[in-house]
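Case study 2.
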Amino acid sequence: MLLLFVLPGIWVFSQPVSYPSSFTVAQDGTGNFRTIQEAINAVRDLSQQWVTIHIRKGVYREKVVVPSWKTMIRLVGESRDSTIIQWDDFSGKPNPGGKDAFGKEKFTTYTSYTMLVAANDFSAENLTIENTAGRVGQAVALHVEGDRCVISNCRLLGNQDTLYTGTEESHQYYKDCFIEGTTDFVFGEATVVFSHCVFRSLLNSFLSAAATTPRQAFGFVFMDCRLEADTSVKKVFLGRPWRPYAKTVFLRTDMGPQIAPAGWDNWRNPENEKTAYYAEYESHGPGAGADKRASWSHQLSAKEAKQYTLENILGQWIKQYQPIP
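Prediction:
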């Protein structure tokens, strides 16, 4: 379609503008960009077509931000184990740039991320996203706030607070991922499904810390996952309520011997037992055992378990989700 501009006494016809649907990032200069952030910045603002950013093998030392106006971005690594994004900020670390937009001179949990996804309609696959700060407190690898976000075949590596699933309006889907950490290494307010993922605990601690609001029908849902641990780990709780109305459900999950018999913790507040919703269905493995679980948790019936479908939890968009190859 031609665009028509009317100037005084002149008719000007211009050709339609086309925008790239893909970019390549390569550290050796053989792609369109050398850094991931440069490629993200090059995507058209408020894009209404999927734009694929292919990332070749390498260790990318970047603090990556996908801002809210960079929609419909798909990051595709060449190899999950050798396409690696790393950074090392942590809560309490001095900010070399001085004060941030909130007047903070040090990083907080919410600004310690290696990658922040604030945009809607985002996907990432075949990547490792890692916070390399070590065991220094809260240090987020991936922080996702956007809606309709899919992470598949990725490794998320860190210690405390590895994955922050932020905002109650956000719906996120993690498939075939490996997620590793120490304390509360999956936490946040979002509605999230983890399907066929592996979770590896590195310390005796807590796997998840949901902050679900009373307005949400679902919080964290783990489907057909596997829970494993470092050989030194002997006692891991499935979850504790970061906020009182936390919701966390495990379906058909293989639980290793590190899972504490009680399964759930009230975060030193018995009042949370009245509001939090923790449930399981067909847990198996040495860490399963319904008869020893916390009395205020639930074992779902087959009928109750049927409500936990991708469409019910995340919405119809997940059924139609098909980013360009």
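Confidence is low (pLDDT under 50) at residues 1-7.
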